[in-house]
Amino acid sequence: MEKLSVLFYTLVAIDFFLVAKQLDFVHGSPPKEAPPVGIYELKKGHMSVKFTNWGASIISLVLPDKYGNMGDITLGYDSVKDYMNDTTYFGGVVGRVANRIGGAKFTLNGTEYKLKANEGKNMLHGGPKGYSDVIWNVTKYKNDNDHPSIRFSYDSHDGEEGQKKYTPVNLAQHTYWNLGNHDSGDILSEKILIFASNYTPVDSELIPTGEIVAVKGTPYDFLEPQTIGSRIKELPNGYDINYALDGSPNEMKRVAIVKDKKSGRVMELSANQPGVQFYTGNMIKDVKGKGGFIYKAHAGLCLETQGYPDSVNHPNFPSQIIAPGKYYTHNMLFKFSIEP
After folding, report:
1. Whole-number pLDDT of residue 160
2. Of the residues 11, 270, 317, 338, which has the maximum number of CB atoms within 10 A of its CB?
3. What pLDDT was estimated at residue 28?
4. Are strands 15-24 and 327-338 parallel, antiparallel or unpaired?
5. Active site at which residues (predicted)?
């Protein structure tokens, strides 16, 4: 059978590094026993980040605001068991193909592959059991020096959720951010700048139409900093759209800058992917989170760097197909600072 080996590497800097390589194995190789599920913390200075190997998920990120008050800026749960029953993808690594595949099928080299639908007739974030719903191995964990780090790995077998050799690969990191603190309310007053002149419009099921359209003159235009809530009412439910990032598709480039005036926190994101899904937590509805706080719509925002959604069904989109022996590499760099 074919095995897809996936690595997730992070520094408290915070630098995320996702790699996938296709390897060929003899048919019938037995699966390895799953490791226990645990919580792992990285600390450096006044900053700390916690993970669980369930879904290689970020479960907290604590750092000071402009007044020196510490706060957790990621939405999530108190218990790892809650992540196992999660339907919001809080903090997880989603894949093998993040975002949506229309009709839960695609054709490659003349063969149609039928996948497992989990959002109506479509596949979302890898299907009913994507990478955010599996136990990852912890292959490296250092928290006793100036460069704390952790590495997760997961072996994805041939045919998992319908995927085969010459498989599409599109991983995304699905943390919900609220720079004011996870329990501070909505993110509509936060300002965002997105380095993208174009976006990929979608139909009523959030499947791309195949067009690549300029953001200018639309509510999707964040080429200049705007509060997230400034034009959100012009959209049916809020932002849940892929931006075609400016710059070379495979090189590190600026993706977005988010600022929260009240806390003074600033988050800058860079990545080497061609797109980013900007999602404003539109479908969050009375979710009981950390400390019993109830998350509602727009309680957090996601910036999921990625290949374009449904690329397998749109030849004009950047390809996500990875051949055996080839690498997929996805780098994300999050930088945090404070403005007075």
Report:
1. 62
2. 317
3. 38
4. antiparallel
5. 174 (proton donor), 304 (proton acceptor)
For range 236-249, the mean pLDDT: 95
- The percentage of the chain sitting over the pLDDT mark of 70, rounded to a whole number, equals 89
Residue 174 assigned ligand-binding role:
yes
How many distinct helices (H) and strands (E) make up the chain? Answer: 1, 28
Is-above-0.85 flag for pTM?
A: yes
Report the alpha-carbon distance of residue 258 to residue 281 in Å, rounded: 15
Q: 166-192 b/e with 16+ CB inside 10 Å = b? A: bbbbbbbbbbbbbbbbbbbebbeebbb
Higher pLDDT, 23 or 118: 118
Helix (H, G, I), strand (E, B) or coil at 271: strand
Any known ligand binding at 240? yes
How far apart are the C-alpha atoms of 238 and 300, rounded to whole Å? Answer: 12
CATH of 13-25+35-338, one of 1.10.10.60, 3.90.190.10, 3.20.20.150, 2.70.98.10: 2.70.98.10
Calpha distance 56→137 (Å, rounded): 9
Question: Which of 212, 218, 190, 325 lies closest to 274 in space, CA to CA?
Answer: 212
What are residue 176's phi and psi, to 5 degrees? -95, 120
One-letter amino acid identity for 141?
A: Y
Average pLDDT of the residues in 197-201: 98
The residue type at 287: V
Residue 176 counted as an annotated binding residue: yes
Peptide bond before residue 14 is cis, with ω within 30 degrees of 0:
yes
pLDDT tens digits for range 85-98: 999 999 999 999 99
> Which residue ranges make up each domain of the chain?
13-25+35-338
Query: Among all residues, which ones are annotated catalytic?
Result: 174, 304
The token pair at 189 is 């007053």
pLDDT at 158 over 80: no
